[in-house]
Specification:
Distance between the termini: 94 Å
Radius of gyration: 40 Å
Strand content: under 5%
Structural class: mainly alpha
Shape: flat
Largest sheet: none
Number of strands: 0
Order of helices and strands: HHH
Helix content: over 70%
Length: 121
């Protein structure tokens, strides 16, 4: 919409004239909306940065805690083996046998082929 100069005031093409209704102009409204969006984006960015900082701090503390506990466990296990060497070897052998029996692959191919040949008769 073209701006019509007011005959009672001198016309200045760089000046934004407000409508006769006394409200704000479209340009000023857009400027205020852009400022509001900028403020909201700044607030969100600050919140995200704060969240990121606290998260990284918590992760670092958690990693330090786990490393300390792992070191404590390793030290305790080493001391236990030094204190009870025979029992430790027997326990390790028993756990190895148990793991081997759990991970052993049964020979089912002969049984399956035998059942299939019986079923086809």
């Amino acid at each position: 919409m073209a701006t019509v100069p007011n005959p009672t005031r001198p016309y200045n093409p760089g000046q934004h004239q407000q409508p006769a209704s006394g409200g704000t102009g479209l340009g000023e409204t857009l400027h205020q909306a852009a400022a509001s969006v900028g403020d909201a984006a700044s607030t969100v960015a600050h919140g995200v940065q704060s969240c990121w900082d606290s998260t990284t701090q918590e992760v670092r503390q958690g990693a330090e805690y786990v490393a300390d506990k792992a070191g404590d466990f390793w030290g305790d296990a080493t001391n236990m083996v030094r204190r009870y060497p025979v029992a430790s070897v027997l326990i390790a052998f028993g756990l190895g046998c148990l793991a081997a029996s759990l991970f052993r692959v049964p020979n089912w191919t002969d049984d399956v082929s035998r059942r299939m040949s019986r079923g086809s008769m």
